[in-house]
Design a protein that fits this description.
The chain is built from 17 helices and 24 strands. It has 558 residues and is of the alpha/beta class. It has 3 domains: 214 residues, Spore Coat Polysaccharide Biosynthesis Protein SpsA, Chain A; 116 residues, Rossmann fold (3-Layer(aba) Sandwich), CATH 3.40.50.11190; 183 residues, Glycogen Phosphorylase B (Rossmann fold, 3-Layer(aba) Sandwich), CATH 3.40.50. The strands form 5 sheets. It has a 7-stranded mixed β-sheet, sandwiched between helices. β15, α9 and β16 form a beta-alpha-beta unit. α14 packs across α16. The longest helix has 16 residues.
């Protein structure tokens, strides 16, 4: 079967001047239709019919024929039927042949896939229909109008997925038998609607259409590799989720080890696509078939071998908080928790690259209080060193330190003011019941597990206890003075949680005595001017811009 592909490309577009020849994502718009036609093995010849010399030149660059369309066929109100008929006759004369079928491909449908076109042509050859029309199913509750009266175009109001099909023609392609082509028609008596997705059906008509298509064509396939479990904590999981939530329009996939249940379950609950592995070799196998543009490896201390294998399977490799030898071989390394000078141009270190969760852009810091009414305790999702238990055992003593510091004043109505409270935020991975940790409301001690609104709790706190991970940045964003106890020696390398940024860092939590914690807490409770200065130092950091910087690093071309 001889098949001719005709690509109409008039030069007189007014909505988007030079539309068909302008660069979209680095290529002329018409090039996408040309490449689809040439990638389809069932298409014999391809021709561009146009009144635009630039389009003729581009057609030749891509190895297609071109016909200079006469002025009578280039007007604003000329339909495609006579244009396609004219191109068909001229190509049959040029090649001394008669085609069996003609495919009209619109230059304004750059999201059509060549594989979709090929499948449609294969079905057309076998199907016995005169014409195949590309269309998308856009079933919506719609209304019509007759005179001054409106009427529903449906019999029953249903959810979209339950409505009958409503096919809207797409300009992507129209396949028809040669015998159906006339100066006034390209559609035969028997028609088949070939359904394509709404994305492939996009027809560029306005600048908004152009911007949306260009964004889609520049979309990247990004794989996040991260684990979360009790000994490691959940910071890597939450960090990757923060980035993924900001990558709307890109194709996201998470890969995690299913044996690390805490991280696996959290990613399942996120509704992002998730691929579970049990051995690292399975990760490489997965990447071989997935072909990602970017791998974001948020696992500690990579090896040279690991990073080089990833680079052979992905267009770009970005590692996070990586102090291993593999960092030297990654395309980019983002170490927001470490402030040492970057060893190379592909290393980005320090608080400028901190990724703050969306909720901290919504909730704002509260005003400063000279009294400590609310104490917040947060040691991460799993708290591997059980610093929660250490502070919980001191909770009554901590609250006792606040007695005599202004709580004896009266509220309106002559009733005593409510006493200070201490709130513990625990992750699902922390065994609170096993540790004997529970709410004691009569003593103003409250336990909150798997909290979804952490920023809201921070917004009510006057002082916090925390470890030295990413939570310190969240506290800084909310202006909550904090006492820091590090989980382990590696955390002590995270240099942000120091007095210059509003934190009192007591060092390795396991080594800090109860007396030191109590005396530090009491000193802060009695010196509101110190806490106010800590708050000021915290809020001077502009952490809200870090996520955007990291996204640029991940998504920009090398």
């Amino acid at each position: 079967m001889k098949v001719l592909a005709v690509i109409p490309a008039r030069g007189g577009s007014k909505g988007i001047p030079r539309k068909n020849v302008r660069l979209m994502a680095g290529k002329p718009l018409i090039a996408y239709a040309l490449q689809n036609a040439q990638s389809c093995p069932l298409i014999t010849d391809t021709v561009v019919t146009t009144d635009d010399e630039e389009a003729i030149s581009i057609a030749r660059v891509y190895g297609a024929d071109a016909i200079a369309r006469e002025a009578a066929l280039a007007g604003d109100h000329v339909t495609l039927d006579p244009v396609v008929y004219d191109a068909l006759l001229k190509m049959e004369e040029k090649n001394a042949c008669t085609y069996d079928a003609v495919v009209t491909l619109q230059a304004t449908s750059p999201l059509l896939k060549g594989s979709t076109l090929t499948r449609a042509l294969e079905e057309f050859q076998k199907g016995g229909k005169d014409t195949y029309i590309s269309a998308s199913n856009q079933a919506h509750l719609s209304w019509g109008k007759e005179g001054e009266q409106y009427f529903p175009n449906y019999q029953e109001r249903k959810n979209r997925q339950s409505l009958p099909p409503h096919y809207v023609e797409a300009g992507a392609f129209l396949i028809t038998k040669r015998s159906c082509i006339t100066p006034r028609n390209r559609i035969g008596a028997s028609v088949f609607i070939y359904e394509i997705g709404e994305e492939e059906a996009v027809d560029i008509d306005t600048p908004r259409d152009w911007a949306a298509c260009e964004h889609t064509l520049q979309r990247k396939r990004v794989v996040f590799r991260a684990d979360g479990y009790r000994e490691l904590g959940m910071g890597h999981i939450y960090h990757c989720l923060t980035l993924a939530y900001r990558m709307v329009g890109h194709e996201i996939m998470f890969v995690t080890n299913r044996r690390h249940r805490e991280g696996y379950e959290r990613l399942k609950d996120s509704y992002f696509p998730l691929h579970a592995i049990e051995q690292e070799e399975e990760f490489y196998t997965f990447l071989e078939g997935y072909h990602p543009d970017v791998v974001v490896n948020d696992c500690l201390n990579t090896t040279r071998e690991h990073v080089l294998r990833l680079k052979g399977l992905a267009g770009k490799v970005v590692t996070i908080e990586d102090l291993g030898e593999g960092a030297c071989y990654a395309d980019a390394v983002v170490n927001a928790l470490y402030h040492e000078p970057a060893p190379g141009p592909n290393h980005y270190a320090g608080a400028d690259y901190v990724c703050i969760r969306d909720e901290f852009f919504i909730h704002r810091p509260k005003g400063f209080s000279s009294e400590i009414r609310n104490v917040l305790v947060m040691f991460g999702g799993t708290d591997p060193s059980n610093l929660t238990g250490k502070v919980y055992g001191m909770a009554e003593k901590l609250l006792g330190c606040l007695k005599g510091l202004g709580w004896e004043h009266l509220r309106d109505g002559g009733k005593p003011a409510a006493g200070p409270e201490i709130h513990f935020i625990l992750g699902k991975g922390y065994p609170a019941a096993e540790k004997g940790i529970f709410t004691r409301p009569e003593q103003n001690i409250f336990i909150h597990i798997d909290v979804k609104n952490v920023a809201e709790h921070m917004g009510q706190a006057d002082l916090a206890f925390t470890s030295q991970g990413r939570t310190v940045f969240e506290l800084a964003a909310m202006g909550v003075p904090a006492i820091v106890l590090a989980q382990n020696e590696r955390e002590r390398l995270h240099t942000f949680a120091q007095m210059e940024n509003g934190f009192l860092n007591l060092g390795l939590g396991a080594e800090v005595t109860e007396e030191t914690i109590l005396s530090t807490f009491q000193w802060l409770a009695r010196t509101p001017q110190i806490r106010e200065e800590m708050r000021r130092l915290m809020l001077k950091n502009h952490l809200e811009q870090g996520t955007g910087r990291v996204l640029d690093i991940i998504l920009k071309d090398r």
